[in-house]
């Protein structure tokens, strides 16, 4: 069982809804610093504000790309990644083109991911790319294919969900991703993680990072 401090270091404290406000982002960052989480995860329009609020803390800035449906072009995603990096992003959570994956257009999916990875590689500092597969919409075969393409394209993490589809992370999906990508890549579980027991179960299944909007409630429940 992870301690409160250990779990905090695995959490991306998240505010991504369509009504996310500047005040909400400020509160998010204040909580992130207070609880010493891994990162805050915000929309591109809030990247500069979040970076300013985090100051010289150790909390990383994660910015989403192609969020939440992943249906913009690879060129658009690459540009969005570049802008996020210029605003101070340390990590990028990008959404794949789910339809392309389901259609079996693996070349498109890999090129899409690689476009963002290439933008990250050109950054003046290390920038990790987490690739959101939106597993609730995929068959097991598609989940495995998506994870393999993510690894092949050079991303650092594979991620379960946006939190805006029909379902979020499951223990079974996290275990499948971990089995597929091996030990060297990160696996992020996100979507529907609302308590410490669920977060712990995801870690036990192989998650190295947890996406959560109820971070304070989760961590405060741990003695």
Give helix and strand order, one letter per element, not per position: HEHEHEHEHHEHEHEHEH
In whole angstroms, the N-to-C terminal distance is 12 Å
Helix content range of the residues, please? 40-55%
Structural class: alpha/beta
Overall residue-averaged pLDDT value:
98
- Number of structural units classed as domains: 1
Give the total of beta strands: 8
Strand order of the largest sheet: 1-2-3-4-5-6-7-8
Estimate the global geometry from the Cα principal axes. globular
Task: Describe the 3D structure.
With 223 residues, the protein is an alpha/beta fold. It has a single domain (4-216), classed as Aldolase class I (TIM Barrel, Alpha-Beta Barrel). It contains 10 helices and 8 strands. The protein has helices at residues 4-8, 22-35, 47-54, 74-86, 98-102, 106-121, 140-153, 171-181, 196-205, 215-220; strands at residues 11-15, 39-42, 60-65, 91-95, 128-132, 157-159, 186-190, 209-212. The chain has an 8-stranded parallel beta barrel, surrounded by 7 helices. The termini are close together. The mean pLDDT is 98.
């Amino acid at each position: 069982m992870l301690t409160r401090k250990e779990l905090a270091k695995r959490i991306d404290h998240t505010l991504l809804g369509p009504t996310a406000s500047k005040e909400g982002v400020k509160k998010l960052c204040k909580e992130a610093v207070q609880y010493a989480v891994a990162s805050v995860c915000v929309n591109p329009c809030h990247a500069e504000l979040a970076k300013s609020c985090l100051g010289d803390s150790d909390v990383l800035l994660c910015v989403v790309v192609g969020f939440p449906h992943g249906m913009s072009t690879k060129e658009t995603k690459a540009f969005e990644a570049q802008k996020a990096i210029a605003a101070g992003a340390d990590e990028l959570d990008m959404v794949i083109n789910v339809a392309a994956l389901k259609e079996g257009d693996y070349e498109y999916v890999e090129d899409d991911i690689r476009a963002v990875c290439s933008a990250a590689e050109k950054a003046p500092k290390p920038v990790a790319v987490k690739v959101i597969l939106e597993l609730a919409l995929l068959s097991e075969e598609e989940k495995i294919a998506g994870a393999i393409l993510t690894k092949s394209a050079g991303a650092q993490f594979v991620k379960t969900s946006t939190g805006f589809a029909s379902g979020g992370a499951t223990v079974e999906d996290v275990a499948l991703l971990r089995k597929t990508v091996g030990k060297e890549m990160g696996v992020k579980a996100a979507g529907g993680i609302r308590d410490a027991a669920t977060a712990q179960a995801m870690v036990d299944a192989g998650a190295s990072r947890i996406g959560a909007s109820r971070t304070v409630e989760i961590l405060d429940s741990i003695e």
